[in-house]
Each structure stands twice: as structure tokens, then as C-alpha cells.
Design a protein that fits this description.
globular; Spore Coat Polysaccharide Biosynthesis Protein SpsA, Chain A; alpha/beta; two-stranded antiparallel ribbon; 20% strand; 2 domains
Length: 327
């Protein structure tokens, strides 16, 4: 890996042969070249490794499927650059993607991450993700999903960056820790962004860094038993870890309402068993996760985050109603 490069693009891959060639090709068509590429392969069996060997794509091969969190942690630890860019294999980046992310994160050492404008692959005018938000009900959400991209052309602070296409300041991982491998996958990017905020850092959104995203390519669908169970479990971990006792007590009724509403939602879609299995697994395995150590500025930062979750709740409801009008 080059010592003089600005960033390392880390691509976790598990049986992603259908997506890797176009993903890598788009990276080789960037307006800058001061980044390395490193694929972390989670024991793929679909020819991904052979293709990378034949096309001289740098990769680390794991001996089993470690999930997103552990895979990208290995990539971050292997990188020798000031920044790391995490990128899903089911994406195709626009030519200015890397340049704009590197430029924006370089503006301040207090910036931990910068999220890109992720657009839906089947409709380039619609947002897939413009940074992630958080509500009092305990639901993380994709900002702008399903809305016209013209509404999201302003740089702004977000609750967390979407780990599917975002840049991170590598040195801050040494301070706040790496992605939580207890998550395996799902919500680990919200967790790391939350921890960064508690440590006094910022997560931003950069609309100039654009990427097309196919979405749910690895898990196979928007909702399935595996995804529903892990997301429900990880949501328990997420709030337990990042909210001090008094904040959890304050938000308990909202969080409980959020769990019950989700239970009804997934029951109607036929996933009640998977959802409750995830919730109970989360509650019974809290000993596996490490609660954040809240420092001297914890009170002020938690209050700021509480206000952000209140605003996120309003935003979520507004966008839900807006999408309903367009459906």
C-alpha cells in the first residue's frame, strides 16, 4: 500500500462477483489517483478471488465470512493512509467521488466521517441515502430515501455516515474504537458515528460525492429473516451502548413504543418470529457489547444528541408522510 496516498478504498466482499468488476472499473475512472484499493474477501466461493488475482486487485482473504464489521476493521488496520473510504461492492461511483470526499474531510481534524450522495441504481434521480439520522423511537433511517436528489444538494451535518460509501479519518478509530464486531453487520455504521459524536467529532454529508447503489445485493432483499433478526438485535446493542442510564430512562417509553410499532410492522410482513428473536437475543447478550465510557463533556454532548434525535423524529415522520403522498 502506498505511503503517500491520501486514502484507501476498502471494499468488503462476499460472493460479489456479479458486482466487483463494475465497482472496480468505476474506481479506476476517478478524477484523482491518490488512493489505494483493498478488497476484504469474506471467503467467497463464486470466483471473486480468482477474478481479483487475474486483474491485479489487492485483497485480503478471510478464512470465513466475518461479516461487514470485522472485514472492514481488518481493512482499516491494514491501511497506511490518513483516510479510509468504505465502499459496498454493489456500487458504482461517479468520477469525482473520491476527490470530493477527500477534500471535504480534510477541512477539519474534528471531522470523523463524510457520507456521500447515494443514488438508486434503478433511478438515478432518487436518493438512496444522504447520510443517516436517528429518532427517539430508536429507529435509524436513511435521510432522503426515495426523494428527488435536488432536495439534497446542500452540505450538512448528519447523525452518522452510511458505511456503504463514506470516508473516515483513520486516526480517530484508535481513540473511539473500531466497528463493533458483535454487530456482524447492520447498524455498525450508526454505532461508530454515534461514538464519534460522543467524543466530540462530526459526521458530514457531501452531495458532490455521488455513487449509484443497487441495495441489499448481499442479503438478497429489503426484508428477510436474517436481516430482520440482526437489525432488531443490533438496535438493542446500539442504544444500550451509546446512551447513559439517565438518557435511557428518559427515552425508555419512546424506545419501547418503537419496538412495539416495529413488531406490528414486521408481523404484517410475516417476520414476527425473526423480529422478536432478534430483540430477545439483543437483551440476553448485552454482556457481549462494551458500553461507551462517557467523559467530562458527556452531559453536554448527550443533550445535543437528544435534541438531534427529537429533530430526527420530526424529519422521519415528515418524510414518511411525504413518501406516502407520492406512492
Amino acid at each position: 500500500m502506498g505511503e503517500e496516498k491520501e486514502a484507501t478504498v476498502i471494499i468488503p466482499n462476499w460472493n460479489g462477483m456479479a458486482f466487483l468488476p463494475s465497482c472496480i472499473a468505476a474506481l479506476k475512472n476517478q478524477t484523482v489517483s491518490d488512493f489505494d484499493i483493498l478488497v476484504i474477501d469474506n471467503a467467497s466461493e463464486d470466483g471473486s478471488v480468482l477474478w481479483m488475482e487475474r486483474n491485479s486487485v489487492p485483497f485480503i482473504r478471510e478464512n470465513r465470512n466475518l461479516g461487514f464489521a470485522a472485514a472492514v476493521n481488518d481493512g482499516i488496520k491494514a491501511a497506511k493512509t490518513p483516510y479510509v473510504i468504505l465502499l459496498n461492492n454493489d456500487t458504482e461511483v461517479f468520477p469525482g467521488f473520491a476527490e470530493n470526499l477527500i477534500r471535504m474531510i480534510g477541512k477539519s481534524r474534528k471531522i470523523f466521517s463524510v457520507s456521500s450522495m447515494m443514488l438508486r441504481f434503478d433511478d438515478h434521480d432518487l436518493i438512496d441515502d444522504a447520510g443517516d439520522g436517528m429518532s427517539l423511537l430508536g429507529w435509524a433511517f436513511q435521510k432522503g430515501t426515495g426523494q428527488k436528489k435536488e432536495r439534497f444538494l446542500i452540505r450538512r451535518e448528519v447523525f452518522s455516515a452510511c458505511g456503504g460509501a463514506a470516508i473516515y479519518r483513520r486516526s480517530i478509530f484508535d481513540e473511539i474504537g473500531f466497528f463493533d464486531e458483535a454487530h456482524f453487520c447492520y447498524l455498525e455504521d450508526i454505532d461508530i458515528g454515534w461514538r464519534a459524536k460522543l467524543a466530540g467529532y462530526h459526521n458530514l454529508y457531501c452531495p458532490a460525492a455521488k455513487v449509484l447503489h443497487k441495495g441489499s445485493a448481499t442479503s438478497g432483499s429489503k426484508y428477510n429473516d436474517f436481516k430482520v433478526r440482526l437489525t432488531a438485535r443490533n438496535n438493542i446493542y446500539l442504544h444500550y451502548k451509546n446512551q447513559p442510564f439517565l438518557q435511557l430512562l428518559l427515552n425508555f417509553d419512546f424506545l419501547l413504543d418503537g419496538i412495539l410499532i416495529k413488531a406490528v410492522f414486521f408481523a404484517r410482513k410475516g417476520f414476527a418470529k425473526s423480529y422478536f428473536s432478534g430483540v430477545f437475543e439483543g437483551l440476553s447478550t448485552l454482556h457481549r457489547v462494551k458500553k461507551v465510557r462517557f467523559g467530562k463533556a458527556a452531559g453536554r454532548r448527550c443533550l445535543a444528541i437528544e435534541w438531534e434525535m427529537i429533530a430526527g423524529t420530526v424529519e422521519y415522520v415528515y418524510n414518511y408522510l411525504l413518501r406516502g403522498k407520492h406512492d
